[in-house]
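User
Please review the sequence:
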Amino acid sequence: MSKALTCCFTGHRRLPAEKMEHIVMYLDCEVEKLIEQGVTHFVSGGALGFDQIAASLIVCKKQVGQNIRLVLALACRNQDALWNDAQKKVYRNLLVEADEVVYISEDYDSECMAKRNKYMVNQSAYCICALLRSFGGTHQTVHYARQRGLRIINVADAHDQCYNES
């Protein structure tokens, strides 16, 4: 996996319903632009919310013939232990569709999420995020990605820059 051709995803587990359509459309547009620029690897943490939305989009693009790869960088082997059956089903489908699965830790501990986030950033040149708050894991991941010099694309921004460029 070439860092220059890799994009990671990070975002909140809960996104406002009124912003969801915008976020998904903007995400799709930005992923398309990266693919056109030669990005081939997309890394998701597989968590509920934005991580799974982004991973599902990559699966869809692969199914229609895009030559890209989905890498799931998972915090631990049992990260879905407390999820409901519907959430587990989506997660397990993503595991099947992924081209590669990396487990950062065997078991859950207080550091495994942060380690996963750093791993994803360290593999990437781009970071597509859905960042709405200036605290929490997504904020920390985007801050780390900025420090590492990644190009940050926040698809939760209020403007539609993706569609205004021609």
In short: The longest helix spans residues 17-36. The beta strands are 6-11, 41-44, 69-76, 100-105, 126-130, 151-154. The chain has a mean pLDDT of 94. The radius of gyration is 15 Å.
